[in-house]
Automatic annotation (TrEMBL), chain A:
It comes from Penicilliopsis zonata CBS 506.65. InterPro entries: Papain-like_cys_pep_sf, Peptidase_C19, Peptidase_C19_UCH, USP, USP_CS, Znf_RING/FYVE/PHD. CDD domains: Peptidase_C19D. This is USP domain-containing protein. One of its GO terms (molecular function) is cysteine-type deubiquitinase activity. GO terms for biological process: protein deubiquitination.
Automatic annotation (TrEMBL), chain B:
GO terms for biological process: chromatin organization. Residues 58-70, 318-329 have a biased composition (Basic and acidic residues). Residues 282-295 have a biased composition (Basic residues). The keyword Zinc applies. This is SAGA-associated factor 11. It comes from Penicilliopsis zonata CBS 506.65. Pfam families: Sgf11. One of its GO terms (cellular component) is SAGA-type complex. Transmembrane segments: none annotated. Residues 241-260 have a biased composition (Polar residues). It comes from the Eukaryota. It is found in: Nucleus.
Length: 486, 329
């Protein structure tokens, strides 16, 4: 799960249990062999992709979890394990579902820190980066960090509200979802934007950095007001300034833009491939390809995007027409599908260069070329008729995690690592009320716990409540940063 | 029909029933297995860490004791001050401490036995205080096992109607006196029982309501209730004179990204009045004086626009009052 669950290496035991210690503490070769076998069996037990099982159906005689012996790879069911150990003296098994180690001597699952790290999805990258770093060295580093950095005091983390300063809930919801973003937390709490070194006037980055520091100071439980951020925002955008309600999505775009502008070494033009942190975190690329219906000439353009604005209307209309049955609720996947599906262009909007610049009918399709680490999706809950704009109410189903691969430029690629496209929900912003007046609140995840932030009122909620919400903005986080950065 | 009949004939009676039963059985087993495995994993890792934390703490205490002992013998040449990991690691040589669940041996900690059996308490690895396993108030609350002990501040979230996850009542506005009283009555009746138990949370939580705090405007030297800050800042920055023509709705956002510098020429209008919006500090007093007449005028159209005249008027009045009183706060 994407969250900063920082666990001190100093609080980890050297080995998962005494019996495991006996094996791993021994000479290098035994320990190495054990680890190799562990990884091999661990990999072989990996849940297989659907298409693989479809092509070659395996016959399974039991559905219940099997325990594979680490020494001889023999699968045992729960009851046979003891007999196998008595017969062969093999002590360790890997259970097939959770792939944890079972120690027959302990009669219990054991969780070894070193082996757990080895098997985590990021392990291959980590081991490349630091193949020789072991636990002892890691704990040296940690002692160093502990003695040279401010420690966050124990508290209910991430559970502080933000006071509504008077029609500023649009700011609060966006800020709150950023405050709960693990990547941004790491950036700001790592002093990557230092207000006292910053020379920009009315810098929004400084104001956000201040808010992050305040939010995480930990001493206080009550909310606080993001005064300086409000002032900095108003000063740098006349469109947002003033005592009135604003669109949260617009504010999000503004904030991302300003944060990007506030970093050192950013490039103004998005085409240049800016190397800055915010660019990597927030900016993706959309590819729009227009195919001429007459000559088949394809024109491709790539545009930077910081969010996906998805049409809800089409979904709602489909439902009204009874396309998929009246009872179905529109889904986020459906919205994404219609967003990335081909769209007919009338002859008067496109001039084909292949046909000598004459206006032609064409087909346009949008695809995601590059995904950002923090993916914001806006569900366009507005309907425009000739003079009236209305809000589309109602639920749109969204998942806790989503695979974005089908919406990218190469949706059918089999070889890619699936985890590079898995996104987990981190925040959901809800708008209540009408188009021109209403209230925002946001559900944010802190670790595995969901909380509802209604300005300064913070309450605990269940995952089910979050999924039931009528979301307006959804923030998804890339599950594995290591995989994504490759 | 004939085909399916034929195929079922070849199987002995009750095969499908047996198969269905087995599949369901296996599936339910797996669901329960996964849930239990997750709980087991979380719990065992927490206990492991607790065992290690206890052992490490003992080890460090032992090391400190020895160090102080040697320091007493006048060898301050090895000032193993925290900050140097090497020195700290050195100070652990030849120290071996055994606790119920783990062994501390020269800076490394090894488990002893099964932590689920040896370790009963969850200790926070950061502050090394025991963790509370149940919220101290609200739904599912239990009093702390030992009221005289200090517990880790990372407690389970409290869920209690009208209260936040910390168990504090929601902040209320000073102006809503009637509502406040009602809430207060409710609180005193419901929270009598838990109020006696938690030492961590203030016992006065039930009887004392939380008010919105007063904040200082970063643009000028005055103080306001936080809920009225935006309204004040609007005037303080001299924005309100030009809010009238624009009602932005989310509908506008479709194509338009906020464009800074869209209407800069309007600012000088305010400047001409003499109250510089950028709040140059020598002008503080002047700003104070000229504020009220300027502030009142443009608030009129906005009342109409928002359509909540009595509320807004009251709020505006209250703001003016707080402006007057504000300096004392």
């Amino acid at each position: 799960m994407a969250s900063v669950t920082y666990i001190s290496a100093l609080s980890e035991a050297e080995y998962g249990c005494e019996h495991l210690a006996a094996v791993l503490k021994g000479d290098e070769t035994t320990a190495g062999q054990f680890k190799d076998r562990f990884m091999k069996i661990h990999k072989s037990l990996e849940p297989q992709l659907k298409n693989v099982t479809a092509s070659a159906p395996k016959t399974a005689f039991v559905l219940k979890p099997k325990y594979t012996c680490l020494a001889c790879s023999e699968p045992c069911v729960n009851g046979d394990r003891k007999i196998h150990t008595e017969k062969t003296g093999h002590q360790f098994y890997i259970e097939g579902r959770t792939r944890s180690i079972f120690c027959q001597m302990c009669g219990d699952f054991v969780y070894d820190y070193g082996l757990e790290r080895l098997r985590s999805p990021t392990a291959s990258v980590v081991s490349q980066v630091s193949s020789k770093r072991d636990l002892t060295e890691a704990s040296y580093d940690e002692v160093y960090v502990r003695n040279n950095a401010n420690k966050r005091p124990c508290s209910k983390q991430g559970a502080r509200g933000l006071y509504n300063m008077g029609q500023t809930c649009y700011l609060n919801v966006i800020l709150q979802s950023m405050l709960h973003d693990p990547i941004l937390n790491t950036y700001f709490l790592g002093n990557s934007h230092q207000p006292h070194d910053c020379s920009l006037p009315d810098c929004v980055g400084c104001a956000v950095a201040e808010t992050f520091a305040e939010f995480n100071s930990g001493e206080k439980a009550e909310g606080f007001g993001a005064l300086n951020l409000l002032m900095a925002s108003w000063k740098s955008s006349s469109a947002l300034a003033g005592y009135q309600q604003q669109d949260a999505h617009e504010y999000y775009q503004f904030l991302v833009d300003k944060l990007h502008a506030s970093t050192d070494g950013h490039l103004e033009g998005h085409e240049m491939g800016c190397p800055c942190f915010f660019h990597k975190a927030f900016y993706g690329k959309l590819r729009s390809s227009v195919t001429c219906d007459k000559c088949g000439n394809v024109t491709r353009t790539e545009d930077p995007m910081i969010d996906l604005s998805l049409d809800v209307q089409i979904q709602a209309k489909k439902r009204a027409m009874g396309g998929t049955g009246p009872s179905t609720v529109p889904t986020l996947n459906g919205c994404l599908e219609s967003f990335t599906s081909p769209e007919k262009l009338m002859a008067d909007v496109y001039n084909c260069s292949g046909c000598g610049g004459t206006p032609q009918k064409a087909t346009k399709q949008l695809r995601i070329k590059k995904l950002p680490a923090i993916l914001c999706m806006q569900l366009k809950r507005f309907e425009h008729t000739f003079s009236v704009s209305e809000k589309v109410e109602g639920r749109i189903d969204f998942p806790m995690s989503i695979n974005m691969l089908p919406f990218t430029t190469n949706p059918n690629c089999q070889k890619v690592d699936k985890s590079r496209y898995m996104y987990d929900l981190s925040s959901a912003v809800v708008h209540k009320g009408k188009l021109d007046a209403g209230h925002y609140y946001v559900y944010c995840r802190q670790g595995d716990q969901w909380m509802l932030f209604n300005d300064d009122q913070v309450t605990a909620v269940t995952e089910a409540e979050v999924l039931k919400a009528d979301a307006y903005l959804l923030f998804y986080n890339l599950r594995s940063l290591f995989a994504g950065s490759k | 029909m004939g085909d399916s009949n034929g195929s079922t004939k070849s199987l002995p009676n009750g095969t499908i029933a047996k198969l269905t039963c087995d599949i369901l059985d296996g599936t339910f087993y797996n669901i329960i297995h996964d849930i239990v495995a997750k709980v087991h994993r979380d719990e065992k890792i927490a206990r492991m860490r607790s065992a290690v934390t206890i052992a490490r703490q003992r080890g460090e205490e032992e090391a400190r004791r020895l160090r102080e002992g040697t320091a007493g013998k006048a060898t301050p040449a090895v000032p193993a001050k925290p900050g140097d990991p090497e020195a700290e690691a050195q100070s652990f040589t030849n120290i071996r401490v055994e606790t119920e669940g783990a062994i501390f041996d020269e800076g490394k900690v090894y488990l002893k036995g099964n932590p689920l059996k040896t370790t009963k308490e969850i200790i926070c690895p950061d502050c090394r205080l025991p963790r509370l396993l149940y919220p101290v108030a609200g739904i599912g609350a239990r009093p702390p096992p030992d009221p005289s002990r200090e517990y880790c501040q990372r407690q389970p979230l409290i869920s209690k109607p009208g209260h936040d996850v910390h168990g504090n009542p929601f902040a209320v506005d000073k102006t809503q006196t009637k509502k406040k009283k009602k809430d207060k009555d409710k609180e005193t009746t419901t929270s009598n029982t838990p109020a006696s138990s938690p030492p961590g949370t203030p016992e006065s939580g039930a009887s004392k309501e939380i008010l919105f705090p007063t904040v200082k405007c970063p643009n000028c030297p005055r103080y306001f209730g936080v809920t009225r800050f935006a309204m004040h800042l609007d005037r303080c920055m001299g924005l309100s004179s030009r809010g009238t023509g624009r009602t932005r709705t989310p509908a506008d956002s479709g194509s338009a990204t906020p464009n800074p510098a869209s209407n800069p020429p309007k600012r000088p209008l305010v400047d001409e009045d003499g109250s510089s919006p950028s709040g140059v500090f020598p002008k503080k007093k002047k700003l104070n004086g000229s504020k009220k007449p300027i502030g009142k005028k443009p608030s009129l159209p906005s009342k109409l626009k928002n359509g909540t005249t009595p509320d807004m008027a009251a709020a505006a009045d209250a703001e003016i009052k707080s402006e007057a009183v504000g300096e004392d706060n």
